[in-house]
Specification:
- With about 450 residues, the chain is α/β, with parallel strands linked by helices.
- It is about 40% helix and about 15% strand.
- Strands 4, 5, 7, 8, 9, 10, 11, 12, 13 and 14 form a 10-stranded mixed β-sheet that branches. The chain has a 3-stranded antiparallel β-sheet with strand order 1-2-3.
- Helix 4 runs antiparallel to helix 5, helix 7 packs across helix 9 and helix 9 runs parallel beside helix 10.
- It binds magnesium ion.
- The site of magnesium ion has 5 residues, from loops.
- Magnesium ion binds next to loops.
């Protein structure tokens, strides 16, 4: 009798969890392991959307925290646009919070669509980053409610880990090749190589515009010949020193004139680059058709694109091999999944932007999508400092050239708000993107 009662109680208890989660009676979770919010009745409402800005290592990081009517249930998402961080913070605290409070946390698509058009004018980097913070936080919450990592909600794993590339540089082609070797010894199969910074500006001589007193002393100069020569030299030297197996990548950072860019990429074909990134500024997108006719070197493009719509034509016209999306820049996981699925139909692969000015929660969002989409290509990786890991417990980690996540429900990354507050972003920002000029002082558009 006692056994029967216990069994009936257990079934009843499992049924309550199943009803709350929609997972059915085969839900492997034990009721006692479930969080309180799994037993709560829907809908759970948004009670607050706020920005958390932090500056632990000289880069403005902005994160959105979405709080809910369920005690203890919240989500966080990346909204980092460091060059205009204060504007993103205002967009979140002054507008997004008011728009979202009272809405159902479960309806991610509806919240994305309604927020996206709530300002009427849309698709700018400030508003898209704020929207991304909301979107990623809602996926984080949904994962916590389901007691699953977000990648499971996106379809589950296509691979055991996320293959990454490292960034190698050096003072000379020889030193650069040595640094590539070090990364290979650490286990990386893919290494990006740059000499003298983007556009090799550090290698260029003092330009005439500075001698003439034009522009500011801190403005950078880029000499196209110096850069193209340095880039062919490093590919030649690295192939010679490091062999054929390592995959080599390079970021042109949109700094050459279109024909200069096409000529450089053609000359690199013999070194079998894994991809060449950002050959043209977005204003010069029409040149991709000429580039495709000139060379078969794989191309990665798009970290400056704002709208998910900007990907449609280049994907269907087979102009890019890798879509280089800055996930927060286009509004988060929801639009990134749509672009990734569109790209799959054309055998175009992902290569999400993953620099230091993406917060650890943003890197986690990258990784969750990387796990779930079949057409994953490669992931840009950074090493998080101990300080950053303390502020963002649970951040992804890289081992043997692979990024791993911690398998916790949601995105798996938290934020220590007290610690984050110890590193406020500066009031006055000098974060204008590098002013880069030609010899006569003409601005170069990255
Ligand atoms: Mg780039």
């Amino acid at each position: 009798m006692e056994t029967k009662l216990n069994r009936r109680d257990a079934i009843k208890s499992l049924g309550a969890v199943a009803a709350a989660t929609g997972l059915g009676v085969s839900n492997p979770l034990k009721a006692e392991e479930s969080k309180n919010y799994l037993k709560g009745s829907a809908p759970i409402r948004i009670t607050k959307v706020k920005a958390i800005a932090t500056y632990p290592h000289g880069l403005e990081l902005v994160v959105v925290k979405v709080e809910t009517s369920e005690p203890g249930l919240y989500g966080i998402g990346c909204a980092t646009f460091r060059q205009r961080a204060h504007a993103v913070v205002a967009a979140i605290n002054k507008y997004l919070n008011d728009f979202c409070v009272g809405k159902d946390v479960d309806n991610i698509e509806d919240l994305w669509q309604s927020t996206y058009q709530s300002s009427y004018w849309r698709n700018g980097p400030v508003l898209n980053n704020a929207l991304s913070g909301l979107d990623q936080a809602l996926w984080d919450i949904k994962g916590k409610r389901a007691n699953m990592p977000v990648y499971q909600l996106l379809g589950g794993k296509c691979r055991f880990a996320v293959d990454c590339y490292a960034h190698a540089s050096g003072k000379s082609p020889g030193e650069l090749a040595e640094n590539v070797t070090k990364y290979m010894e650490e286990g990386f199969r893919h290494v990006r190589i740059q000499l003298g910074g983007y556009g090799s500006t550090a290698l260029s001589q003092r330009p005439d515009f500075k001698n003439a007193g034009f522009g500011l002393e801190r403005d950078n100069y880029m000499d196209p010949y110096t850069y193209t020569k340095a880039t062919t030299d490093i590919f030649e030297k690295t192939r010679k020193e490091c062999g054929d197996r390592v995959e080599l990548l390079h970021d042109m950072h949109e700094r050459l004139q279109p024909m200069e860019a096409i000529n450089l990429i053609k000359s690199l074909e013999q070194y079998r680059p894994f991809f060449i990134e950002d050959p043209f500024s977005p204003e010069n997108n029409r040149y991709f058709k000429l580039l495709r006719q000139a060379t078969s070197v794989p191309i990665a493009m798009g970290e400056l694109f704002n709208s998910p719509q900007e990907w449609t034509d280049p994907i269907k016209d087979l102009l890019f091999d890798y879509i280089r999306i800055h996930i927060s820049q286009i509004g988060g996981i929801t639009p990134a999944m749509k672009v990734a699925r569109l790209a799959e139909a054309f055998n175009v692969k992902t290569a999400w932007h993953g620099p230091g000015d993406v917060s650890p929660v943003g890197h986690a969002a990258n990784a969750h999508i990387d796990f779930a989409v079949w057409n994953f290509g490669i992931q840009e990786s950074v090493n998080f400092s101990d300080k950053l890991r303390e502020i963002f417990p649970g951040a992804p980690y890289v081992e043997n050239g692979y990024m791993h996540i911690n398998e916790a429900p949601g995105l798996g990354v938290d934020i220590n708000e007290e610690l984050a507050a110890k590193y406020p972003i500066p009031d006055v920002q000098m974060n204008n993107w590098t002013q880069l000029r030609r010899n006569d002082g003409t601005i170069i558009r990255p």
